[in-house]
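Report of the visiting student (M.T.), summer placement. My assignment was to run the structure pipeline on a short list of targets and document each run. The first record concerns DUF2255 family protein.
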Amino acid sequence: MSGWTDEELEGISGAEEIEISPLRRDGSPGKAVPVWVVRVGDNLYVRSWRGRGGCWYRTALATGEGRIRAGGVEKQVGFVEEKDPAINDRIDAAYREKYGRYPGYVRPMVAPEARATTLRLVPRP
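After the run finished, the structure tokens were exported:
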């Protein structure tokens, strides 16, 4: 079970982008950054278009916590690295399906550099 309600999953995954604000090491919220989000099953995933060099990604990885806002939902989340190749294949397909009208941006999102930054969003109370 993912911990997301059906309404949250639909609202967030239906949004073109989410605003993601990883917490800084001192516990303060980072600057909100727009990122693409995809749904696979009952889970939500994000990737850094800039690969491991993305500032928001480095902060999210370091602290493991943050906040997202999209589709009428604002939620505290945890960030969990997704390393399973089979799940990442499904995430690639979800990016291609949802954002296929932007081929110049989708290609880097499914390339090894971005794929290595896949994070599952886990809702927090």
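Residues 6-123 form a domain with the Pnp Oxidase; Chain A fold (CATH 2.30.110.10). The chain has one domain: 6-123. I thank the supervising group for their guidance throughout the placement.
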